[in-house]
Amino acid sequence: xxxxxxxxxxxxxxxxxxxxxxxxxxxxxxxxxxxxxxxxxxxxxxxxxxxxxxxxxxxxxxxxxxxxxxxxxxxxxxxxxxxxxxxxxxxxxxxxxxxxxxxxxxxxxxxxxxxxxxxxxxxxxxxxxxxxxxxxxxxxxxxxxxxxxxxxxxxxxxxxxxxxxxxxxxxxxxxxxxxxxxxxxxxxxxxxxxxxxxxxxxxxxxxxxxxxxxxxxxxxxxxxxxxxxxxxxxxxxxxxxxxxxxxxxxxxxxxxxxxxxxxxxxxxxxxxxxxxxxxxxxxxxxxxxxxxxxxxxxxxxxxxxxxxxxxxxxxxxxxxxxxxxxxxxxxxxxxxxxxxxxxxxxxxxxxxxxxxxxxxxxx
Length: 363
Description:
This protein folds into two domains: 222 residues, Spore Coat Polysaccharide Biosynthesis Protein SpsA, Chain A, CATH 3.90.550; 97 residues, UDP N-Acetylglucosamine Acyltransferase, domain 1 (3 Solenoid), CATH 2.160.10.10. Strands 5-4-1-6-9-8-10 form a seven-stranded mixed β-sheet, with helices on both faces. A six-stranded parallel β-sheet has the order 12-15-18-21-24-27, with helices on one face. A six-stranded parallel β-sheet has the order 13-16-19-22-25-28, with no helix packed on it. Helix 3 crosses helix 6. The protein is elongated and about 70 Å long. It is 18% helix and 27% strand. With 363 residues, the chain is α/β, with parallel strands linked by helices. A hairpin with a 2-residue loop joins strand 2 and strand 3.
C-alpha cells in the first residue's frame, strides 16, 4: 500500500436526493426529506458542510421529488463556498440510474457518491485516501454495526478487497454493512446503462466483481444513521445537537438543547435530550421537551410534555398535552390535555379538540 493521498479538489461529489421520503410522511408531504429541518438546518446542509470541510467543492445533486426546492434554497452553492449543479430525474432510475443520470456534469476522474438519506460522521478524506492508495476502481464506505441483519453485508479480505455483496440475511458472515457512500473511477459510471432504472447494489456492484475490477472497502466505526424513519430522524437530530454526530455547522454550539435566537422559552420549562426549537416558536411555562424536534413557528402551551417527537411548522400543542413518539404535521392543532403516543402521525391541518384523544381516564 502506497502513501499516496487523494486530491479532494479534483473530486466530484454526487448526492442522490430524489426519494419521496414516504416513511417520514406527513413531514414529506410538502417538503423533500433532505430539506427537513434537522438541528436547525436542512438535513442536506450538514452533509454539504462536511463535503466542503473535506476540500471537495464541485457538487451535483441528483433530484426528482420536489426538485425545485433544492435550487431555491441552495442556489449555485456560492454562499457555502461550493459550486452546486442540479440534475432532475424525470422518472425513478434507482441508485445506479441516478448516478448515471449525472454523468454529463462530472468534471474529474474521481467521483464520490452519497446517499442523501444518511447522517454520517466518517472522515471523507480517509475514504478518498484509501481509494487512491489501493488504486481502486470502486471504494465503498463500510461501517461496522452491532446487528447487521437488517442491512446488506459486504465481507472483505485481509487487504480490504470486497469479496461479495449479500442481501439481508439472518446469519450474516460479517458486521460490515454498506454505508451508502462510494468512490467511483469515472469510467465505471459511464458503463452504467443510461435511461433505465438500475440498482448499484443488485446489478452494478456484483457485475464489477465478476469483471474482477478493483473493489475495496473502507471500514470504520464512524457515526452512521439512516434517517428514513421518524425515530431515526429524531435520534439523528438530537445526536447532532448534543455533538454525538459531528456537523461543521454546529461547531461550538452543541449541548442538551439548541434554541433559535428568535424562539421564546418561558421560565420553568425544561429542554433536554438534544431538543431543537426552531425560528419563532413559543414554549410556554412549565413545559418539558425531551429528545424532540420542534420546527419553525410552533406554539406549545404551558404544562405540555413532548418526548421523542417531531412537531412540524405552525403546529399548536395545547396546555398540559402529552405527546410521546409522535409526528405532528404542519399547522395541526392538538387540544389541551390530549394524550398522543405510540407512533401516532397527525396529518397537516388536522384539529383535535381539548380532551379529544386520551389514553388515561379524564380525571
